[in-house]
Amino acid sequence: MREFLWPVRVYYEDTDSGGVVYYANYLRFMERARTEWLRSLGFEQDRLLEKEGIIFAVRRVVVDYKNPARFNDALQVSSRIKARGRASLTFQQEITKQPDGQLLCDGEVQIACIEAARFRPCPIPESILMGIPDVV
Fold it and tell me: Which domains does the chain have, with CATH numbers?
């Protein structure tokens, strides 16, 4: 699976006083897509904390906003792994408006695997890495 796609609907609560999606909510949509990507590999974040003692935390984000989304728009969030490290994954993510595919924003998000007890970086479990395609 090189690219993971997740649908999102814009709700009224996602918009600002101008009637467009508030800029920070695009990050929430990207987070949901990464969570669902991990779930599609068979991993639940609460179970990873409970059984492996790890959490994933955002380390770095760069987002470029292109076009606004509005109330009730149907969106699609794409996620693909751009880089793999021993304790981190870097995602390239895009949010497009459906059905025309207009690019609304794109971003690069680096997440780190963190040992929850000490809040220090730790290696990503091999069981997770096995489900991730090689980065080209």
Answer: 4-123 (3.10.129.10)
